[in-house]
Amino acid sequence: MHIENTLFDKRNLVFVPDTEGSSFDPQEAIDGWDINEFKVTESSNDYLTGFGDSSNKNQNFSSFDVFIGLDRAAWGMFFKIFLGMYIAFMIATISFTPHPSELEPRFGLPVGGLFAAVGNKYIIDSLLPESSSFTLVDTLHAITFIGIFAILLVSAVALRQYDNGKKEYAEFINRRGATLVITSYVVANVIFVTLALL
After folding, report:
1. pLDDT at residue 29 greater than cutoff 90
2. Ordered strands of the 2-4 beta sheet
3. Burial class (CB in 10 A: 0-12, 13-18, 19+), 141
4. How far apart are CA 152 and CA 114, in angstroms?
5. Residue 11 — pLDDT band, cuts 50, 70, 90?
6. 164 backbone dihedrals φ, ψ, rounded to 5°
7. Rounded to the nearest 5°, which phi and psi values hold at 30?
8. 175-192 pLDDT, tens per residue?
9. pLDDT in tens, 95-130
């Protein structure tokens, strides 16, 4: 909020805000938001206009500045938006459970999870305002897409080793690949969500 106080300037009076007595009406709240800070200050601003006085096109006016800090407990919104994406990734990770030789579940589950994640992304994009920047929604979905691709890659490598007669090595790749992909996915999500909160 920015309010010009030209009357005090024209009378050469000093504008002093009542910082002790100034507050906000608790009933004037925004749904889903909490007011965590309220501050009243005084400052001066230069304007390239005389506000009707043609003899002076550059004038300085005092301003009454009100700063209102807003906070929102958004974890409910977060899980509402990303629950479908996380379920899609968990469905894809189930493909690590069957034996490396079982082709259909090893590749069918991740592909199904990928389609579910892509569908979730398009639904969320239709609900959120358009943005040219790479948002948290875009970042977490990109991590999910890469994670599901990594699951398919591990399954392909394990299957190849199994077909070459290296059955124990194929199972080793499957175990290590599952640990690496799932751990990396969880750590990446924690890092980017934490950075968004800072």
Report:
1. no
2. 2-4, 59-71, 34-47
3. buried
4. 10
5. very low
6. -85, 5
7. -105, 130
8. 999 999 999 999 999 999
9. 999 988 888 889 999 999 999 999 999 888 888 888
Look-up of token digits 């969320």: 124
Distance between CA atoms of residues 145 and 89, nearest Å: 9
Cα separation, 104 vs 112, in Å, equals 12
Q: At 193, which amino acid appears? A: V
Amino acid letter, 20: E
Instruction: Write the secondary structure of the chain as one string of H (helix), E (strand) and C (coil).
Output: CEEECHHHHHCCCCCCCCCCCCCCCCCCCCCCCEEEEEEEEEEEEEECCCCCCCCCCCEEEEEEEEEEEEECCCHHHHHHHHHHHHHHHHHHHHHHCCCCCCHHHHHHHHHHHHHHHHHHHHHHHHHCCCCCCCCHHHHHHHHHHHHHHHHHHHHHHHHHHHHCCCHHHHHHHHHHHHHHHHHHHHHHHHHHHHHHHC
**Encoding tokens for residue 76?**
């409910």
Strand 2-4 relative to strand 59-71, pairing:
antiparallel
pTM of the model: 0.68
